[in-house]
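for the writeup, i need someone to sanity check this before i put it in the appendix. the sequnce is what the collaborator sent (i think, or maybe the updated version? ugh). structure was predicted straight from it, no edits. if anything looks off just tell me and ill rerun, i have time this weekend
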Amino acid sequence: MTSVLDFSKNNQANKTSNQESLECEHCKSANIVFDHGTGEKICSSCRIILSVEREFVDPILNTNTNLSNLNLGTPSSLAHYDKNLSTLISYSNVDADGVAISVDQRSAIQRMRRWNKISNNNRSYHRNLKNAFAVLIRIKDKLSLSETIIEKSAYYYRKILDQNLIKGRSIKGFIVACVYASCREMNVPRTIEEIAEISDADKIFAGKCYRLLIRTLKIRLPSIDFACHLYRIANNAGISEKTLRHALQMMSMIKDDPISFGKDPCAIAIAVLYGACLEKGEKMSQSKISLAGNVSVVTLRKRFLDIQKIFPQIPNGPNDMISEKIV
């Protein structure tokens, strides 16, 4: 009896010594914290998860199974027509254990595959979602949008489809509207013209769908952050950090002025950047900066005239700067 007690005490001592000697592999810190809720060992210095010791309890078998050996399948997603929850019958004539299905059962399995395929594609609701989310995935790949924006766009489109607003209207137009509303909500600097061009949709009709979406779902979007457009255009055009900071100071005064109300924020940002380049003496052509912001040169000149009303000290062009230096 005493030997058994001594053996258990030695095991406990070995466990405590292993926990005390445990250190982080990255920062070599010994401050390891164990989270009982998630079963994770976390380094308190670099916040890296070292190991997971939580076990999953199967309610059916009542056995403990390690989470690493458990196949939970693909996660559910609103951007799939079936939310990744439907069952797919494989075309391979083998069962779950890899044993070949007998000839007598193949006809029954083939009939089950056929009815499963018909049941998945029979409803117009599912066919609409398949076509819409194919366009949504294409927009995601070409614009490099995050999963959060895609999930939010799919949520808005499902709401519109449930209220029968899509009937008689373009699927692409509403997808563009949902993506643009999600980008506005997440403060991502994307224009509706840019999204419509990627998806090959009519930008005018997409704007109508966007206004209908906002009005029907009563979405309250934050105001457009002009600074996001400034950073994006400055990076595309290769403008220096000094000029960009001066443009940010100018934008803080322009965004509260009534002259910027109702104007395209991207066009305002391009005009402010061009004015900042002229003031700081940085060489930047109108065609290059308008191409960086995907805006025409005519729009840039119109918005630049509005900017000059607020900042009259901005020269009209590089030639005015040279004449001022000569005088």
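The first strand starts at residue 32 and ends at 35. The domain at 124-217 is CATH 1.10.472.10 (Cyclin A; domain 1).
thx in advance!!
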